[in-house]
Amino acid sequence: MEKLTAEVGSTIEVTDVLMLADDGSILTGQPLVEGARVVAEVLDQGRDPKVVVFKYKNKTRYRRRRGHRQPFTRLAIRNILKAGETAPAAEAEVQTPARPRRTTRQRAAAAAPEAPAAKGTTEAPAEQPAAPARPRRRTTTTAPATPAAPRRRTTRKTESEE
User: Fold this and answer.
1) pTM of the model
2) Interval 32-68: pLDDT, tens
3) How far apart are CA 80 and CA 123, in angstroms?
């Protein structure tokens, strides 16, 4: 969700409910459903991956490169309540902590193959599958296609030549 001013672990209520479905019946607001609310717990505050904004105008040497990271709030929905309903007593729920975001270096380290074992260790290095061979370029040994076409005559004939 868009960034909200709430601390991690706190509970918030969202009252801007546009549509509510319950056992096959659908309530649609005009524009909001009256009295409906959503109880949610804040799991994380963070920023999305970078979006690069690149402006370019042809033939004028105009280029602008900017990056943007949109802030967000990660929520866990606990209850969806209709008008007049109250939240049930808090049950002992298993808290699932927010998954930590991995940095680019951590992703690269996870994707990189393991280094060979150090000298003196008893483990044999894991064998890596061979990379597929690149296709070779085909070379032709035939003669060139055809000689160039004769040039067209560029001067006009005079009346005496006709």
Assistant:
1) 0.48
2) 999 899 999 999 999 999 999 999 999 999 999 999 9
3) 55
